[in-house]
## 1
Amino acid sequence: MTFAVLGWAGILLRRRAAAHKRLLVIATVSVLGPALARLARLPFFGGEQGPLTVSVLLALLAAVVIHDVVTMRKLHPATTAGISFAIAVSVIFNAIAAAPVGLSLVRWLQ
């Protein structure tokens, strides 16, 4: 969902190059979670519950923030909106997944 919303917003703002680029980079970072989770299964990355996935995703989002601060001396509105949206969706989806409703849905899907 995060990729779709941010990608769609980036495409809509394609005539505003700065916003377009930032939204598409943040959208791309949002789809890296499953790949990083598979890498995290390797023992030297801390196992499945290790900090690799969250650490890498936050580091990539921090790189976008650092780029804005270094080049513009402030955050671009697209960066603020995109990162806020991505983090909010992640927190909400994780809360739903940990709730009894989310767990029963997963059991039903199995």
## 2
Amino acid sequence: MKHDTENLAKRAGQAKTAALDLAYSAGELRDRALEAMSRALEERVQEILEANRKDVEKAEADVAKGALAQPLLKRLMMSESKLKDMVEGILSVRDLPDPLGRTLEARELDQGLRLFKVTVPIGVIGVVFESRPDVVPQIASLCMKSGNAVIMKGGKEALESNRVLGKCLRDAAVEVGAPAGWLQVIETREEVAEILALHQYIDLMIPRGSNRFVQYVMEHTKIPVLGHSDGICHMYVHASADPDMACQLVLDAKMQYPAVCNAIETLLVDEQLAGTWLPSAVAKLREAGVVLKGDERVVSACGEEQVSLASEADWSTEYLDHVLSVRVVSSPAEAIDHINRYGSHHTDAIVAQDDQVAKRFLREVDSSSCMCNASTRFADGFRYGLGAEIGISTNKIHSRGPVGLEGLIIYKYILEGQGHLVSTYAGDGAKPFTHRALREEWSETS
């Protein structure tokens, strides 16, 4: 199929224009658009499910041929209950405070010369994500609420679902006053390569996929990139852990939804538990359908018929499936070192009743979310109260962890004076600045 690069650039230009309009739109308009988007999903549920059925049928055939991984098929499937969750997700975003126009800082430089640091949208967001269609309304709602336009592409497995969802959400918002072009859905890999060159229109790229794909995006664009490559998450069970709690947390963190980035891929167990708690936990994991790979101490404690020997590569593998690597560690320091070496800085947890050990883990593990006595599956924008998330970032600039509204806004400085000149504050006899903190909000009407 031949692609019209000129047309794609034109569409990106339309998104840029829409972003400028949204940036100065009233919060009431954006909330009204979100309400219309939620209604559209409710009204077109059968059309959306029919599109998803076509995607699932094709995906099942691809899985049978070995052309598609089973976890991707699981991510693809939609239902009326999932659509209901999408609607609730959009409304939860609507109910969040308006993130735009907030004064982060106010300072008097001199009498009558006031500086304000005010939140504004980023502009045009480019998002490329995996086969989960529920990501479409999450991204669209967050971008609408934060006043950003968005160009998105989902996995080819969800082509029909994403196409219908994108049109449904875009048209509903436009009908109540949102600017045309605010949401663009692209469908091919070639178009992804082309938008990476459109840095004059796109302000931020958020890739959600394999490590290889994220690295490709970073290496082939001048656009700033936000996101994470892998979700190699850990749970460390310390000797002080409550045994029953530890079993329940491990099962939840692995099996509540194995095909997502915040499910654990490695279990670290204190050596004091290797002969007692570990064999029991392994039995329960196997009963739940988990395939286990362990180091020599795990195999020795549990038996080769229960656990196969892990390779060095297993410690760095994101399975996204019913597979778990298990290692025995001699101390909290060894657990922390393992996580910081092999982990992806995504989400890691400790199960412990020893408060000092837990606090050390939370302080020293270098991940975007660190948890104590809680499942890693809580690392989610909706569960964190962010309304929804556009992705999870392991970056250490701008935004980290589940990226909600705060990750889609930036700020600008607004300086209001009364004819003030820099020359007044320079050279001999320069007038000093007051640099006095103000308790004022910047307002367009003040």
## 3
Amino acid sequence: MRENAFRFGRARHLVGVVGLPASATDNVGVIVLNAGMVHRIGPFRLNVEMTRRLNACGYPTLRFDLSTLGDSSASAELESRPQQIRADVADAMTLLGEKSGCKGFVLVGLCSGAENAHTAACTETRTAGAIFLDGYVYRTAGFMLRHYLPRLFSPKTWRGFLARHLRNNPQLADDAPDFRHEFPQRSAIRTDLIGMLDRGLKLSFIYSGGMSQYFNHRRQFRECFGRVATHPGLSLSFLEDTDHTYILDTDRDRLLDVIEDWLLHNFPVVATSISA
């Protein structure tokens, strides 16, 4: 395995690390995006461990910082953020393709990184697949029942509710800032997924237990997106005992096992020699 850092992109404003295994694949390279505002190493070095493990399996990888994140600067282009993301991912695919010979790519993103991977995968024709870690999901009637019904009969819940009610000032609560992130309409995301699958993309959705305020059962995905959930090109995993960033070694190993197995099943490695 060899790793090299590069400054690249249409304005040479992006910074990333390419990992090349001893044996390459004719199929796909893997590109890992930032998780929120976190540097390209990922939360607690998750992206580093992921890419190095995939290198050991034979997959070329690139972990990089999107425009204005980590070590990457702005491109000085007057574009919307989605347009910047698509252009940055296109530049990343070009770099990894030049260094490894890959023609197709799998995008990986956690949380907002999953949203950015979704944005790019919708239109980038070189995308072969995507792995969405705690990506788009919507609360459903089933979610509400599973979430609230057990709490209705919990003395601890009622004690907490009464304590908060007696302690809090409603007027102060009304003035509190609202930092909630608004997702696109569910129907729009469903249409996007159908489009990706119709183009032949392979999609993996992996949810953690850290998403319990939004996702609490495997069947919620079908409740959200209907028959899309049963498409043979889509897989779903729910690691309900893990946290959002997989900080524990055992949880991280479980996640990386799922990712590795999915890649090997959908994009088997064909060993070839890599030119220097």
## 4
Amino acid sequence: MKFILLAIILTLSACTQKIEPAFENVEYPTSFIQQGSSELDISWWNSFASDELSQLVSQGLQDNLSLKARDLRLKSSAINAKIAGAELYPTLNLNANTSTDFENFGDVDTASLGLSSSWELDLWGGIAANENKTYWNHQEQLALYRGRANLVAGNISNAWLGLISEQEKQIVLAGQFQRTHDALKVISRRFAMGKNSVTNIWQQQKLLKSIEVLQSKNYADLYIYQQTLALWLGVPTNNVNTRTLPPLPLLPELPKMGVPVEVLKYRPDIEQSFAKIKAAHEQLAMAISNQYPRITLKANYSTSKNSVKDLFDDWTGNLIASLAMPLFDSGERKSRVEQRKLELKALLIDYQQVWLEAIASVNQVLINEAQLLKITINLAEQLDLAQRTEKLTVIKYLNGKTNYLNLLKAQESILSLERQSIDANKKVIINRVLLYRELSHGDFSMSKHATTKNNDIPGKQS
């Protein structure tokens, strides 16, 4: 009988399958549409050469509440991996009980003491697959954590840049208000001398009121950026220092990005997608193992007596081997395997899509930067021309050689271009923040966690 059972087990083990994920070959681009020359700092915000920004980002990575919550979930998933691994080893339990009658409470009628152990043999790798699955679930949580850390750093940088931009705009609007107010005084004097119409005064007052509206909006935007910065730092809004900040930093040199499949393989979204594939692969292995018998070994060593003093006199033990083998389940286990295979194939396709989207996102940011730089240069040239036009128009107006409408147009043009230039410079810097985020793996958090071992690029066509 022993030989028959052994033959059955060996036959079934020969039928087990080790399904490896089958990645289709995908031809990835060999380079991005642009390449820089500077080295990309892992802590990419240091590229802006601002001690204040570096301090804020470090504070956010340490104190941001959503990142703290994500860190706790990450630690919880690591514990899940330990729990799953414990199933590979035997359990040992101590059992003890006594009984007594209510009438003779305190007198022991019977007492027992024993040790019991149970161990399921992992013949088909199902338990090991479950352990591996929890490991890759942990790696998925790690990728989410790193993605969140990158998001925190990016939003803190954007809020800080927004504050600087609005403070610069506040100064510009104050200057615009003063210049427009001085012009109103000149126009009023000319009206008193009978050299222009009262409508000129009204038009100038209207222009002054429009600047006041922009100043009110600027004040609201300043508070919004302050509140946003406080949110990502995990502190109350009034704790954010609103003193005058330095000007917008200069745009750093474009970083050297290298080959897309090398620089992007540690991106959090790509590593998350990869971890999902590995977890699904282990789920498939578990589904396959569920089709085959389970062998469990149980051992018991105990003693039982009518009195405590005789309890340790005699001990008995036994060893039980049990076999549970599925015979008929209406095809449920087989269908479960097919379902897991389909889910795995879908995740493989998703993984390839994530790769293509990641490369496309970087290229799109590079295209945007080139266009935004052209806009800033164009606006600077327009502003220079508008300033020269305004100076000449003022002289002509004071000499009575042009009408007020031309002066008003010159004023409105220069006021608008000054504000547009500030917004354009901010967009260029924020677009660079987005580029750094697209290239970053997010592994710069305060907590030190293991990184996913994703050194090979599945589906890469060589």
